[in-house]
C-alpha cells in the first residue's frame, strides 16, 4: 500500500494483484494544526529525522537495549505484573489495562529512570493521555476532517481533534518540564545519566557548547518521548493481548508452551533472555500472535527520495509511502492455505528450528523500522514466558471462548474480553 500526499490532488488507485495501493490525498488538517509536525522520529524527515533517530538509538543501546542490563528492568517489572495477576484469584477479569500499565512502566523506567506504582496519579494520567490519542487519532472525527477539511473551521471541538492536540501538548509539558527535573536536576553530567531524558539533554547541551549545529531541542524531545511511548506501549501490550486471546481459543498451544518451559528450564526460576534459544515453540507462538494480531497494519510512513516508477505507476519524489502489512501477513503464497488460522507450527521447520520469513515484518521495514524493536522483542519473550510458566489462561466459559473482534485505530487491537488467570500447581 502506498499513501501519497502530493500537490493537494486527490486520487486513489489500487493494485490488488501486486498487493499495492497508491493514493494521493490532501494533507490532513489535523496534521497541519499540530505543533509537532516534522518533529521526533515517526513524522519527521530529512536531517532532523536522521539526528533524532540516530541519537535515540544510540541512547537506547547505551542504556542496554538488547542486553541483560535492560532485561533486568523488564524482569523486575514482570514480577510486579505477575503478582497483580495472581491477586485476581482466578476470577474472570479484563486484564488489558493492567497489561498496558505494566508495559508502560518498562518504558517509563527507560525514559525517566524509574518505575511508578500503578496508582500513581501522574503515571495514570500519562498512560490515559497516550491511550486516548492512540485509540482516537484515526477515529471517525479525524477521518471526516481529512475528507472535508472545511469542517475544521466549525466552532467548538465537534470532532474531538482539538482534544487530541491538547493531550499532546500536555504530554510534552509533563515529560519535558516535570520529569526532566524529577530529582531536582536542571543540568546533566556523566554521573546522572540514568534516563533517556537525561542523556538527550546532556547530548543537546554538549553539541551546543561545542558550536555543533543540532536539531536536538525540547520540542523534538517531547515528540521523541511521545513516539516511543505511544508506539512502544500500545504495540507490545496489544501483542500480549492478542497472544492471550488466541491461546484461549487454542488451549493446546498453552500446554505445549508449558511443557517446553518445564522441560527446558523448569519452574524453579524465572525465564531469562539466556533461555530464548531453548524455547522454540514459545517463540513461534509469539511470532504467530504478531502475524495474526497485525498490530501495525500500515507500518510507518516512508518518504520516496526520488521519482520512481512501479508497476507502471509514477511515484514522485517526496511521496509518502506506507506498507500494507495486512496484505503481507495474510498472503497464502507465503504462509500457506491456512494463513487465516492461528498455527504457530508454520514458524518451525522439519528439524524443529525456527523458520525466518523475509515477509515477517511486525516492526515495519527499512530505515523507518521501529527503533525499539530489540526492546519490544526482549519484553515479549520475558513477559510471555514468565506468564506461561506460572499461569494458565482460561476462558470464563470453556465452551464459548471470547469472540475474536478487532478494533481499528492507529493500531489493530482486540475488543474487550475477560480471562481467568489460574496459578499452575
Automatic annotation (TrEMBL):
Alphabetic keyword roster: Heme, Iron, Membrane, Metal-binding, Monooxygenase, Oxidoreductase
Keyword Transmembrane belongs to the record: no
Protein localization: Membrane
Matches recorded under Pfam families: p450 (PF00067)
Domain of life, source organism: Eukaryota
Main location, first listed in the record: membrane
Family: Belongs to the cytochrome P450 family.
Protein's UniProt name: Cytochrome P450 2D6-like
Amino acid at each position: 500500500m502506498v499513501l501519497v500526499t502530493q500537490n493537494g490532488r486527490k486520487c486513489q488507485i489500487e493494485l490488488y494483484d501486486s498487493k499495492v495501493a497508491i493514493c494521493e490525498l490532501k494533507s490532513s488538517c489535523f496534521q497541519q494544526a499540530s505543533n509537532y509536525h516534522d518533529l521526533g522520529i515517526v513524522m519527521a524527515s530529512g536531517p532532523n529525522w536522521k539526528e533524532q533517530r540516530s541519537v535515540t538509538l544510540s541512547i537506547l543501546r547505551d542504556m542496554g537495549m538488547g542486553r541483560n542490563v535492560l532485561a533486568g528492568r523488564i524482569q523486575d517489572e514482570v514480577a510486579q505484573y505477575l503478582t497483580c495477576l495472581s491477586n485476581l484469584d482466578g476470577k474472570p477479569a479484563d486484564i488489558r489495562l493492567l497489561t498496558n500499565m505494566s508495559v508502560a512502566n518498562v518504558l517509563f523506567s527507560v525514559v525517566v529512570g524509574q518505575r511508578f506504582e500503578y496508582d500513581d496519579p501522574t503515571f495514570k494520567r500519562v498512560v490515559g493521555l497516550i491511550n486516548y490519542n492512540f485509540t482516537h487519532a484515526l477515529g471517525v472525527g479525524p477521518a471526516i476532517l481529512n475528507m472535508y477539511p472545511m469542517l475544521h473551521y466549525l466552532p467548538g471541538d465537534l470532532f474531538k481533534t482539538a482534544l487530541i492536540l491538547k493531550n499532546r501538548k500536555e504530554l510534552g509539558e509533563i515529560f519535558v518540564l516535570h520529569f526532566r527535573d524529577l530529582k531536582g536536576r536542571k543540568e546533566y553530567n556523566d554521573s546522572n545519566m540514568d534516563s533517556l531524558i537525561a542523556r538527550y539533554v546532556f547530548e543537546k547541551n554538549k553539541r551546543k557548547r561545542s558550536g555543533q549545529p543540532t536539531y536536538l531541542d525540547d520540542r523534538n524531545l517531547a515528540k521523541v518521548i511521545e513516539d516511543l511511548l505511544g508506539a512502544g506501549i500500545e504495540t507490545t501490550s496489544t501483542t500480549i493481548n492478542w497472544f492471550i486471546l488466541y491461546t484461549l481459543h487454542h488451549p493446546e498451544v498453552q500446554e505445549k508452551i508449558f511443557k517446553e518451559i518445564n522441560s527446558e528450564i523448569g519452574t524453579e526460576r524465572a525465564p531469562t533472555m539466556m533461555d530464548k534459544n531453548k524455547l522454540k515453540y514459545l517463540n513461534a507462538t509469539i511470532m504467530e500472535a504478531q502475524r495474526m494480531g497485525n498490530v501495525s497494519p500500515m507500518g510507518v510512513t516512508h518518504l520516496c527520495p526520488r521519482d520512481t516508477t512501479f508497476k507502471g505507476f509514477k511515484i514522485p519524489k517526496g511521496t509518502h509511502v506506507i506498507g500494507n502489512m495486512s496484505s503481507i501477513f495474510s498472503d497464502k503464497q507465503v504462509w500457506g492455505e491456512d494463513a487465516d488460522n492461528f498455527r504457530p507450527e508454520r514458524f518451525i521447520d522439519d528439524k524443529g528450528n525456527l523458520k525466518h520469513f523475509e515477509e515477517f515484518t511486525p516492526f515495519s521495514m527499512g530505515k523507518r523500522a521501529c527503533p525499539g524493536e530489540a526492546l519490544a522483542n526482549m519484553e515479549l519473550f520475558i513477559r510471555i514466558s514468565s506468564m506461561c510458566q506460572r499461569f494458565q489462561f482460561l476462558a470464563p466459559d470453556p465452551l464459548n471462548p471470547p469472540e475474536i473482534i478487532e478494533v481499528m485505530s492507529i493500531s489493530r487491537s482486540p475488543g474487550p474480553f475477560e480471562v481467568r488467570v489460574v496459578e499452575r500447581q
